[in-house]
Specification:
about 0% strand; ASIL1/2-like; about 65% helix; mainly alpha
Length: about 130
């Protein structure tokens, strides 16, 4: 489809010359070539001009794909780190809650025991009216 388009390497393209107003994103056939030219000005020796341009586009496309994979993996690692941090925080909060509940349980048991002992002492001290 775009194989007949040849980019003049001596022509300087404006930074947003491939801006597509319909999508709002750059969508040029030669985007990868421009990216590659910024990285490697010297074409590989032994290749004709016709062979260099498609190779440059392929190299740039592969580089862009690799960069995309690296960014995606970095995002995955960041998310895994964040999830692990959240898991640890939740685990610590659960331990704290368990300790509070255990303390409250002991307080209630101690209070119930004190009330029970007080009731038992009263019943032993007071003689029954039938005796």
């Amino acid at each position: 489809m775009y194989s007949n388009i040849i980019v003049n390497p001596n022509h300087s393209t404006p930074p947003n010359s491939n801006f597509n107003p319909k999508t709002g994103f750059g969508s040029g056939v030669n985007y990868g070539t421009r990216v590659l030219r910024g990285v490697c000005e010297e074409p590989p020796p032994g290749l004709g001009k016709r062979e260099r341009e498609p190779m440059a586009e392929v190299v740039a496309a592969i580089k862009m794909l690799g960069d995309g994979f690296v960014r995606m993996e970095q995002m995955k690692m960041d998310m895994a780190r964040e999830i692990e941090t959240m898991r640890i925080e939740i685990e610590m909060e659960m331990k704290r809650t368990e300790m509070i509940l255990e303390s409250q349980k002991r307080i209630v048991e101690a209070f119930a025991k004190a009330v029970s002992e007080k009731n038992n002492k009263r019943s032993k001290k007071a003689p029954s009216p039938h005796s």
